[in-house]
Amino acid sequence: MRRKDKVRIGALLAAVLAVGLSSGLAEAARCGNNSGGFERWKRDFSKQAASNGVKKRGLSALAGTRYSTKTIRADRGQKSFKLSLNQFMAKRGANTIASRGKSLKRQNANLFNSLERRYGVPPGPLIAIWGMESGFGGFMGNSNILSSVATLAYDCRRSEFFTNHLYAALRLVDNGWLDPNASGAAHGEIGQTQFLPGNVLKYGVDGDGNGRVDLIRSRADALASTANFLRAHGWRPGAGYGPGQANFRALQAWNAAGVYQQAIAIIGVQIDGG
């Protein structure tokens, strides 16, 4: 190859690389670390959402979201997962969850028996998750779900991860499974066992047979969806779920924090044993 041709090709490659880099920078610039660019980002995202099949109801819900400083504070300050296992269990009221969980297991025996027959998951870990996540439906969060997820999709720290969940949330609004004004946890978790929106779409189950998935008002839907999630992540009927046992990996899929995983296993064993 002649030297002139090499120079020309080298220049062309440099130009292509420069365009790619500038495009990547432009893409990255859409996120932000404060409220300043949120409204502009929302307008841009709305166009992308429309082109990806989000309908009028979802787009209207997106337009009504607000930047949530409470969500950002929660995202930056998750200190409880840095505690020791004993400290974490004490902070979360593990003994109370186990004691009340045994009572709820007896009161809802038909529901838990049907879930175990269908999904292979015993009551213990389901009840432990239910208690740990929302105090058995007593407190499901006080943050607007859509605003929380939109804020995290805009925020640069984990934009890609929460962008997928924002799309899912808007589709849940479109199909009537999520009220735009619904409240949840600070990261946009939904319902009695705190599903992220994308997981509602993937694993949500109509546990009470009324034709819709409602993880906020229906304990049957919430618990069936949780069992479905665990089964989808490798749960083996009849196997143990403590650390080192076959089903512990499914609990690890539920939450990435080691102390949380161990706490669920310990509480679940106490409930199943009682």
Question: How would you describe this structure to a colleague?
Answer:
It is a single chain. By secondary structure, the protein is an all-alpha fold. Among the domains are: 1-30; 78-140 and 189-273, Lysozyme. The protein is built from 14 helices and two strands. The chain has helices at 3-29, 38-51, 56-63, 69-76, 85-92, 94-107, 109-119, 123-134, 145-154, 159-174, 197-203, 219-232, 248-254, 258-273; strands at 143-144, 183-184. A two-stranded antiparallel sheet has the order 1-2.
Short description:
With 274 residues, the protein is an all-alpha fold.
Oligomer: single chain
CATH class of the domain at 78-140 and 189-273: Mainly Alpha
Taken from the alpha-carbon principal axes, the silhouette is globular
Helix segment tally: 14
> How do the strands of the widest beta sheet line up side by side?
1-2
What is the helix fraction of residues, given as a range? 55-70%
Structural features:
two-stranded antiparallel ribbon, 274 residues, disordered N terminus, mainly alpha, Lysozyme
